[in-house]
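ok here's Ribonuclease P protein component 1, seq below lol
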Amino acid sequence: MKHTEWNIVFHTLVGLRIHVLLHPDPTLRGLEGVVELETRRGLLVRRNTGDTSWVSKANAIFLVQLPSGTWVVVRGEEIPGVQPERLRRLERYKGVGWLVRAGEKRRYTWRQPTREDMQ
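and the structure came out like this:
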């Protein structure tokens, strides 16, 4: 399945470029690199210099670069657990998960979004 802004939370983040916008730890703000490992509560990010850093998902906001080159804003609360757990959660809720983002409902599905999904 193709990575899109609508289904990124159900994909694995390993191998994607990531930029930490906001984080409770001020030393991690602005960190940029490639995700090496994803755990339930954190990400191991390898910087361009070669060193690695653990970044917790809780209370963080990330910019994730899709393979197409576009950047997507993802809250840490949207990507809890590892990818198989997120897929099981999607299956349990019969293919649709709702998250409230900035006062609007955002719908995540297995398919490409339609106009009514975005309203």
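fwiw The chain has one domain: 8-108. kinda neat tbh
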